[in-house]
């Protein structure tokens, strides 16, 4: 069967909102029309995608799988369409992905001083799938933190970033100037690998509620400061390696120039 991209977009919106009404508002279509399109997609696929009740909409196992696939397919299609338009209009464009709390602006300024006619886009990279924008075509280069899947990527090391303990302001350890790993023994650490879709905002809400502590990169701590949280250096915690990453078989001169300029700029920073 041929997958209808319009229906896939409709499905992704419902999956994101877990609500037909809010999804319909976002898509600017009537809710009955959206419901019919989703039912049509389910018939075409031969399996239910949602469990519907009077109060909630949840994904089935098949729905969860399709949502993961849609998060790769739809951005890739959008990026491909944009590249086609750029070629038609004679636009040179470079898209740079970045991990939360990593600032690539200095490198972009240095690059644009040499290439003022190049359009620059920035693409946030989610912490649990930092390499995704490179693989689905939304970005040509990424300023990322290891570890991530490096298969098929060229990696240029930049430096190391300290990790700090993110602690509720009312916690007994919050008055300390610095900590060691031993100070955190027995504390309830937020196990992010088990909750990989947790956003930074959700993570900080959980910590601020007094139930958890987390080790986070210093750049994230500086970018998301709030009065009910304290960030303390952990003197013996290993640092996190930062790097630039590109798809290994990308030979464009523009990309090579950006890598050269960004590497020198970010290493100095």
UniProtKB/TrEMBL annotation:
<dbReference type="InterPro" id="IPR036388">
    <property type="entry name" value="WH-like_DNA-bd_sf"/>
</dbReference>
<keyword id="KW-0804">Transcription</keyword>
<comment type="similarity">
    <text>Belongs to the LysR transcriptional regulatory family.</text>
</comment>
<dbReference type="Pfam" id="PF03466">
    <property type="entry name" value="LysR_substrate"/>
</dbReference>
<dbReference type="GO" id="GO:0032993">
    <property type="term" value="C:protein-DNA complex"/>
</dbReference>
<protein>
    <submittedName>
        <fullName>Transcriptional regulator</fullName>
    </submittedName>
</protein>
<dbReference type="GO" id="GO:0003677">
    <property type="term" value="F:DNA binding"/>
</dbReference>
<keyword id="KW-0805">Transcription regulation</keyword>
<dbReference type="InterPro" id="IPR005119">
    <property type="entry name" value="LysR_subst-bd"/>
</dbReference>
<feature type="domain" description="HTH lysR-type">
    <location>
        <begin position="3"/>
        <end position="60"/>
    </location>
</feature>
<keyword id="KW-0238">DNA-binding</keyword>
<dbReference type="InterPro" id="IPR000847">
    <property type="entry name" value="LysR_HTH_N"/>
</dbReference>
<dbReference type="Pfam" id="PF00126">
    <property type="entry name" value="HTH_1"/>
</dbReference>
<dbReference type="GO" id="GO:0003700">
    <property type="term" value="F:DNA-binding transcription factor activity"/>
</dbReference>
<dbReference type="InterPro" id="IPR036390">
    <property type="entry name" value="WH_DNA-bd_sf"/>
</dbReference>
């Amino acid at each position: 069967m041929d997958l209808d991209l319009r229906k896939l977009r409709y499905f992704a919106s419902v999956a994101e909102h877990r609500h037909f009404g809010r999804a319909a508002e976002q898509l600017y279509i009537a809710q009955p029309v959206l419901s019919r399109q989703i039912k049509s997609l389910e018939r075409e696929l031969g399996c239910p995608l949602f469990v519907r009740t009077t109060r909630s909409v949840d994904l089935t196992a098949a729905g969860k799988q399709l949502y993961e696939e849609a998060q790769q397919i739809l951005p890739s299609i959008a990026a491909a369409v944009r590249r086609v338009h750029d070629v038609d209009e004679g636009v040179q464009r470079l898209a740079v992905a970045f991990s939360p709390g990593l600032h690539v602006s200095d490198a972009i300024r240095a690059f644009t001083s040499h290439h003022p006619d190049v359009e620059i886009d920035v693409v946030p990279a989610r912490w649990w799938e930092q390499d995704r924008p490179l693989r689905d075509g939304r970005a040509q280069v990424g300023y990322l933190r290891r570890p991530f899947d490096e298969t098929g990527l060229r990696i240029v090391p930049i430096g190391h970033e300290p990790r700090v303990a993110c602690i509720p302001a009312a916690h007994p350890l919050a008055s300390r100037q610095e900590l060691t790993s031993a100070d955190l023994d027995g504390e309830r650490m937020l196990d992010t690998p088990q909750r990989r879709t947790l956003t930074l905002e959700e993570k900080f809400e959980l910590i601020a509620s007094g139930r958890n502590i987390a080790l986070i990169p210093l750049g994230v701590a500086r970018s998301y400061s709030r009065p009910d949280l304290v960030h303390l250096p952990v003197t013996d915690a290993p640092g996190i390696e930062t790097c630039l990453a590109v798809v290994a078989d990308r030979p464009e001169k523009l990309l090579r120039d950006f890598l050269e300029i960004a590497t020198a700029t970010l290493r100095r920073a």
